[in-house]
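Pinned message: reference record for Tetratricopeptide repeat-containing protein
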Amino acid sequence: MAHDSSAITGIELEQFMDRLEAQQQDQETDTLLAQLQAQPLRADSLASIDRLHTLWMQAGDSAAARAVIAEDGHALLQAVHEPARAELMMNLAILRLRIASYLDDDATLLEVLEQLNQMATQTLDFNVEHYRRYRIFDELEQGRLEVALKTIEVRYALTLSNPARAALRAWDAADQYQRRARVLAFHDRDEEARSAALEAVNALRTAGPDQDIDEGDWLWLGNSLIEIIPLRLALFEQPIAQLTAGRSLPQRREWEVRTARLAARALHAQGDLAGALKVCNAAALSLDSDGGNNFIEYELPWLMEAGRIDEAGFRAFIDVYDRQTELWPATARLVLDRLQDPQEHSAWWPICVMRACITEEALQSFLEALPNIETSEPDTTPLLAALYQAMEDLETRDSLFAQARAEALRRAPEQPWITRLTAVHDAERGLIDAATEASLLQSAIQAGRMQDNRSAFSLFAARVNSLGVIEALKAPKPVLSCGKYAYNYALSIEDLAETEADKLPRDARDQAYSLLREAQKDAYEQGQAHMERYFASGSGHPYDACAHLYSMLCNNLAINYRYYNQIRYEDAIELHARGIAASPFAEHYNGLLSARICLEDLPGIIDAAEQLWHYSAEFGYSRHDPNEYVASVAYALYKLDRDNEILIWLERLLKWQEEQGVSDQQLDSSALFARIQVARYLAHAHPDNADSLWQRYEPAVLSLNEVSVMSSSVDFLKARGRTAEAIDYCARTLALCAPDDDYDIRCRARIEEILSELQAPTQPTAKKNWWQIWK
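Predicted structure (tokens):
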């Protein structure tokens, strides 16, 4: 096809389109069209075709846009090498689909989709996976039935043409059928939808051993299809139960929550609203450590549907109260809807607004979820007016809080949550003193039986401000109703308590820290008990089901046991083991190793170090530092006569140092100390390796000139029998020991003892009489 030689093309066309795109915001469509029509244009690359056809579409000339794809695309196809032609054809077809979709041109859509279908039956030498995920396919599946079904067929054909998905053929077949089922159900083709849904289930059920199918795939399929085949819940429950049977109890409980959600949705789809809400006792438990993934998107609308307005209001309040900036957006919209209803009398809706005013960030998140509020109605309430004003200006949140409080009090003057939220609000603004805030909070917590971490922390902070940190920590410990509240309370009091403790004299500071660790232990133990009761029984607080939260709680309590109170190393090990079973992460393996080191459990040290090393290598651990434990591992191997394995750990250590990009000159005292210790324990069985290590690091030892490293060098030289050098390093070490430092005082005593031993006259070895040989 001949092209106009005067047409703008290449870099000149790119610069022309740059100018048009920059001007587009400020000019009319007619102006854009005139500029495009002013001279011939020819796109000579796929990117240029994409940009130019988009500009024609924006200018309102779809025929010109199609011509760019047809004519310039054809020319480009003739110019490219054969291996690249198939992928270019696919890209051009995608562009045609977009235009036809925009114009609602079903005939062209079906034509292009069939072309893509035919292409997918050929051998394609490019990444087909990239194309089957294009958004245009998702958009077309939402359209008219014939186009939607053809789109699903094309997507599946593209999947089959990808040899890399050989182990996912069963999943891909299930995906095709579940997409068909959902489209057919949307178009009220219910019988066909059920048939397609059952085909999807069968695709997974009959998957061979070479197919990668797990419990997550069954859950995905159930979530997609449960409303279409609600009577077939068991088809999803049974394989999930079988595949998760070997999991730890906390993990199995999480899967029970997920299948309970399928059960609730199945009951609702069958018209059993009461039954669905009853199952929410198990289905609405949170599966995120921050309280999210909690089924609110189903439970809250169902409560409203059932007319259980006050329960819905409380559910919405907890979402705003606990989730703050992460609340479900529909919660805020429901709050607005209820505030606009003149027949609504529940206090929870204005209380939700009170809570949303806690910070500008929380209020912003709440307001962003709201539609525009109609203010022209003559009966707009003061609260709605304040809410609208806050949408325009966040600085008015105090006024919004006041209006929400007034409305809440009008509806429920004795509601303790109003007192609790007001106390914190007024104290933060200096309207009441800390003692008054504490008194109000305590009475509200008792009256409302509030056992959450935020209320407990607010009371603790008020007591700190009024009584001081020590008296606040001596006050009765809060009752916390679940693992999440206990975990968060223990964390939240730490910064405040430590900041205040550090202002105190030494003895008082030590007392405050001791009280803090005891308070944290109490909170963690409450949380542990709550969560383990839930795991044992299957029923409990909505925030007791998250296995990862339990694992984090176990880790923090284990740290408390390892370092504070009664130094309970065995209990810490048990907690780390439980945490790993529930939801493993690297800190648990690090904690296990620390506890084994403290117990001087030599085999345990080696095993724990291996676990930590391999877990960190596979899953990552940003705080992983072998310098902290390699000396203990080398010592354990030395004592157990496994000296050869020290070389393995030395190789790991040096490779890790290289990967971190740390030179020998950049090593700090702890890292250098660890290397000299490794050399010391190598000295017995591998003296040459030990000497090489010492030769490498001696310049750094001398340059750093630090007491612990110098002392470790004495140990190495003594172990190697290099007496003169050892004596020299004793002198260097003693010169570094400060007279008033506890570590240095102990170091001096040890080095002086070694020095005496090194300088003592050598005693001849006594020869045993024959009768002493068997002693």
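Pinned by admin. Summary line: Residues 768-775 have pLDDT under 50 and may be disordered.
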